[in-house]
Write a structure and sequence with these properties.
Blueprint lengths: L2 H7 L75 H8 L3 H13 L4 H13 L3 H12 L4 H16 L3 H13 L5 H17 L3 H12 L7 H13 L18
Length: 251
């Protein structure tokens, strides 16, 4: 896994699910509170199963419509069996949250990476934005130009659904891309600024890190503290505790 991705696959997030009341869910890599928040997801409209294309048939972004963070039914997995075989069965039946939880469980158990990646892919295809974020992160970490392009499109979709981890990674992909010039860096900054202002959480920490890197031009140091405070207040625990720098929160 390359260094550009490692920071986003080892972090911990407590994400407020928009419109779902108070809820926490795992950030990328299945870390966090064991998916307790995912079981709290509300159901504002009927759950619809989508067809999932076979691997190798193109970028899954091509079939994604509008993604949802809070519109999926709770995973059909007993609480004591979070991410276990019952989640595998529920995933086969089209349960996006179950696919996501099962992927995290396999990743925590150090199963072959392609197994959790496939489950995140299915979760994404069934419409769960955080599943798309994890799938995009896996593609980004594969050091494959085709996968990188697909990862960018998938993370763009996740960000459009206001998934803060997806926005943070998408903005950084745009800014850090090989050969990115001033226009692209400005576009990446706009992505992170919008997400930080409207969603907060990890996207604010990602913006702080990019400012510190110098890739976005001059900045006032007090802004880093304000961005990290905003990230903490909106659910990004890594930003709490008055860290000395944004970079320190990624170590």
């Amino acid at each position: 896994m390359n260094d550009r991705v490692r920071w986003c696959r080892t972090a911990v997030a407590c994400v407020s699910l928009l419109g779902a009341g108070v809820a926490c869910t795992r950030g990328p890599a299945g870390h966090g509170d064991e998916g307790a928040g995912a079981r709290e997801l509300k159901v504002p409209r009927p759950f619809m199963v989508r067809r999932v294309p076979s691997p190798g048939t193109g970028c899954i972004a091509d079939i994604l419509g509008e993604l949802e963070i809070d519109a999926m039914r709770p995973a059909a997995c007993p609480e004591k069996e979070d991410g276990g075989p019952s989640c595998a069965r529920a995933c086969e039946g089209g349960d996006a949250v179950a696919c996501y939880l099962r992927g995290g469980a396999l990743e925590d158990a150090h199963a072959p990476g392609e197994q959790s990646t496939e489950l995140y892919r299915r979760s994404c295809a069934f419409g769960l934005a955080i599943g798309c974020t994890n799938y995009g992160a896996d593609l980004w970490g594969a050091d494959d130009p085709v996968g990188w392009k697909c990862a960018r499109r998938v993370l763009e979709k996740a960000c459009a659904a206001d998934e803060p981890w997806g926005c943070g990674m998408y903005g950084r992909m745009v800014i850090d891309a090989d050969g990115a010039g001033a226009i692209e860096r400005g576009r990446g900054r706009a992505i992170l600024e919008r997400a930080c202002n409207e969603v907060g959480s990890f996207s604010c920490r990602a913006l702080a890190l990019e400012l510190e890197s110098g890739r976005l031009g001059p900045y006032k140091r007090p802004r880093i503290r304000k961005l990290l405070a905003r990230a903490c207040e909106t659910g990004d625990e890594k930003s709490c505790g008055a860290p000395k720098s944004a970079a320190a929160t990624f170590r």
